[in-house]
């Protein structure tokens, strides 16, 4: 492939001409940027099939010669020119074909060069600049810095052009090229310093807001539109297996304009599970947005005069470090509802361009797509970063649109990764920080919950279901993962909800008391083990050294957990008892559970309040004369009747627990690997897992759970 190609005869077959042009492209002789060669290469009406070995050979040849020819940079420049031409020619088919071929070829060769780079500075092996000779010969100083020129052109194309059936595939090729270009992150660490060079994503971070805003908006519009592949773009797809070549042949009138390069071509239609994506533009637009908004790079503060910086206030990187401004994150955080133009207190409009989005469509799309991890991450990013969208969600009367998919996924926790469970819980924690949310979820009545299999739940409130699922998640975590962050966040959400509980169902009330039972038994077992260890160390110090020294830590953790559950019960009894007779019934029914903790120094004050309630209702029960035996209905009648006369006399008032969510000081350690794991598994771009350094990309061994392949965790809830 690297040998000097011979010029084909004038009557040569198209395949022979194509072979010549491709050999020239990857060969050692440099072609001028203005040469007709590029027009011929990108206009090839190819229907020939290249085996994977030929593609690999061509990539190797380009990698060897690109240092001298700069053909990759020139190809990228021609791509931008072709995209600009599509705007000026109203999308002529021949121009679209040139742009598509340029984008696809760029992706194939760029991906190979990135994955086979042997150094940390990715600008060196890619040679993404023109030589002085090229610039002088072609008179093109404006494209001397190719990465900035290319990124600006790609962002401008996406941000300024609408997706139509005829341009769908071109938009998809451009989105995929951007994902490939930014995949240098896969081959470095999550925390980026000043010396880490990622040419394309670094160039994207210095673009002006006037370009970034429309680009972010169009990515979200594509996600919301969820356009399927056009009917004339149907493909017969056979996925490669082992060393066999895959066959990807397009069915339709445009087949003659498609460069058929296996190993990449339309592989993005197939995700890692082998399922065909029917809406690849929507899916990959979202993945690209997530890559951009979660990029975070540290820089020395002395560079503040050159770069826009966010000062590091947490001290995680030292006082002399800051973070490069991320315009994509900022655009998402400042996005506003297209139906509502907010002005500030002084009456002046928002400073700078603002992304305007239909929040109603975004809300509905998220509700439909939350089974997908990338949609969960987008919802988290919006709720955590965009106060306007959070406010919009909180005033919606159909919160079940978002919450039911979230609760169903938590119900199905055994099939979810730890990272996914973290994100779902933090979404609920962010929402539970608002008292109106905690009140409204108990007013929304669900006719049934078909996916809940343990028991029929007819006419239950959304709030009661949420309590049941959170408690179920705690119990599952205790038996399987034993992850302190999952425990903490579940209990934090329940604590935020507790003062606002309204007519908690009988089943949810029973689950709450059973949660106390489960944690108290775990606490008692740890306390006994700790006492035995202390006794052993006193009697035989040498033997005591060999004992498990993790028991005191675990005991301390479960002391906190048990106290939080007691505070949850206390908050309901203190602030919402008249509205929750089923909670009173559940406590009366299992009142013996609280007796061992009545004199416990860590719990007695909280248990005293519970006994104040128990004494009040037990006395009312004792004073009643009934015919026959007691029944659930008769007990509830007495409880309901006496709830009206309850005044809370003798109850000690405690400060309400309130938990808020805070990101860790270096959130990129979680989000960058997490986002790229989603890109690798969902985009269909067939990244080489052997070259990934960002996270353990190879399948784990049998004794390691699959959901532990990224060993990073989000921050737990913060009590205030």
UniProtKB/TrEMBL annotation:
Organism expressing this protein natively: Araucaria cunninghamii (Hoop pine)
Single Gene Ontology BP annotation: Golgi organization
Family: Belongs to the dymeclin family.
Entry keywords, A to Z: Lipoprotein, Myristate
Organism placement in taxonomy: Eukaryota, Viridiplantae, Streptophyta, Embryophyta, Tracheophyta
Keyword Lipoprotein: yes
Domain of life the protein comes from: Eukaryota
Pfam family, one: Dymeclin
Full protein name: Dymeclin
GO cellular component: Golgi apparatus
């Amino acid at each position: 492939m690297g040998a000097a190609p011979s010029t084909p005869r004038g009557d040569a077959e198209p395949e022979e001409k194509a072979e010549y042009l491709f050999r020239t492209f990857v060969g050692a002789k440099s072609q001028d940027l203005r040469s007709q060669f590029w027009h011929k290469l990108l206009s090839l009406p190819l229907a020939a099939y290249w085996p994977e070995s030929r593609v690999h050979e061509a990539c190797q040849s380009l990698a060897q010669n690109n240092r001298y020819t700069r053909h990759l940079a020139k190809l990228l420049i021609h791509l931008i020119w072709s995209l600009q031409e599509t705007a000026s020619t109203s999308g002529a088919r021949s121009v679209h074909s040139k742009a598509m071929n340029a984008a696809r070829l760029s992706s194939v060769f760029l991906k190979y060069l990135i994955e086979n780079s042997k150094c940390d500075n990715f600008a060196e092996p890619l040679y993404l600049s023109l030589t002085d000779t090229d610039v002088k010969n072609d008179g093109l100083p404006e494209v001397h810095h190719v990465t900035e020129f290319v990124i600006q052109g790609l962002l401008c194309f996406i941000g300024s052009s609408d997706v139509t059936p005829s341009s769908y595939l071109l938009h998809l090729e451009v989105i995929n090229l951007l994902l490939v270009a930014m995949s240098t992150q896969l081959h470095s660490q999550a925390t980026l310093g000043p010396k880490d060079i990622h040419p394309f994503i670094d160039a994207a971070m210095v673009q002006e807001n006037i370009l970034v805003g429309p680009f972010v908006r169009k990515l979200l519009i594509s996600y919301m539109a969820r356009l399927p592949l056009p009917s004339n773009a149907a493909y017969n797809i056979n996925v490669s297996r082992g060393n066999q070549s895959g066959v990807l042949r397009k069915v339709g009138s445009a087949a003659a304009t498609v460069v058929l390069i296996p190993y990449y071509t339309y592989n993005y239609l197939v995700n890692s599970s082998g399922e065909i994506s029917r809406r690849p533009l929507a899916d990959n637009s979202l993945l690209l947005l997530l890559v951009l908004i979660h990029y975070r790079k540290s820089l020395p503060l002395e560079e503040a005069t050159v770069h826009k910086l966010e000062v590091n206030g947490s001290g995680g990187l030292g006082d002399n470090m800051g973070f490069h401004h991320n315009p994509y994150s900022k655009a998402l955080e400042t996005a506003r509802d297209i139906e509502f133009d907010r002005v500030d207190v002084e009456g002046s409009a928002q400073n700078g361009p603002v992304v305007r989005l239909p929040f109603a469509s975004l809300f509905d799309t998220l509700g439909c797509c939350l089974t997908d991890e990338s949609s969960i991450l987008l919802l988290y990013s919006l709720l955590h970063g965009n106060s306007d969208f959070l406010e919009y969600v909180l005033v919606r009367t159909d919160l079940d649109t978002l919450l039911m998919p979230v609760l169903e996924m938590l119900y199905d926790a055994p099939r979810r990764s730890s990272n996914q469970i973290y994100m779902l819980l933090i979404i609920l924690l962010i929402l539970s920080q608002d008292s109106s949310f905690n009140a409204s979820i108990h007013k929304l009545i669900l006719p049934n919950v078909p996916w809940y299999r343990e028991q029929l739940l007819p006419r239950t409130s959304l709030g009661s279901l949420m309590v049941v699922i959170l408690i179920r998640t705690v119990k599952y975590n205790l038996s399987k993962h034993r992850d302190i962050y999952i425990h903490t966040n579940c209990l934090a959400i329940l604590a935020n909800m507790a003062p606002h509980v309204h007519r908690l169902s009988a089943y949810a009330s029973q689950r709450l008391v059973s949660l106390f039972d489960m944690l108290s038994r775990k606490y008692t077992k740890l306390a006994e083990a700790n006492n035995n260890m202390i006794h052993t160390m006193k009697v035989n110090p040498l033997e005591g050294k060999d004992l498990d020294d993790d028991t005191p830590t675990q005991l301390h953790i479960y002391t906190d957990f048990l106290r939080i559950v007691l505070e949850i019960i206390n908050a309901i009894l203190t602030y919402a008892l008249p509205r929750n007779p089923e909670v009173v019934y559940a406590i009366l029914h299992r009142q013996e559970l609280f007796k061992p903790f009545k004199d416990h120094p860590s719990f007695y004050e909280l248990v005293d309040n519970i006994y104040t309630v128990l004494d009040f209702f037990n006395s009312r029960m004792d004073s009643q004369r009934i015919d026959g035996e007691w029944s659930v209905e008769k007990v509830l009648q007495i409880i309901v009747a006496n709830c009206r006369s309850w005044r809370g006399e003798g109850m000690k008032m405690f400060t309400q627990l309130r938990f808020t969510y805070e990101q860790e000081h270096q959130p990129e350690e979680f989000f960058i690997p997490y986002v790229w794991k989603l890109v690798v598994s969902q985009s269909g771009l067939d990244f080489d897992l052997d070259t990934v350094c960002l996270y353990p990309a190879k399948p784990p061994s049998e004794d390691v759970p699959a959901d532990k392949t990224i060993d990073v965790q989000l921050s737990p809830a913060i009590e205030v």
